[in-house]
Amino acid sequence: MIVLVIVVSVLVLEVVAAIVTGSLALFADAGHMFSDTIGLAVALAATVIAARPATERATFGFQRAEVFGALINGGILLAVAVSVGVQAVLRLLQPEGVHVLSLPMLVVGVIGLVANIAAALILRPQSEASINMKGAYLEVLGDLFGSVAAIVAAIVIMTTGFMAADALASLAIALLIAPRAFLLLRDALRVLSEAVPVDTSVAEIREHLLSAGGVVDVHDVHVWAITSGHPVFSAHVVVNDEVFAKRRTGQLLDELAECLAEHFDVEHSTFQLEPAEHAGHEEQLHH
Question: Residue 78 CA to chain centroid, in angstroms?
Answer without folding.
Answer: 13
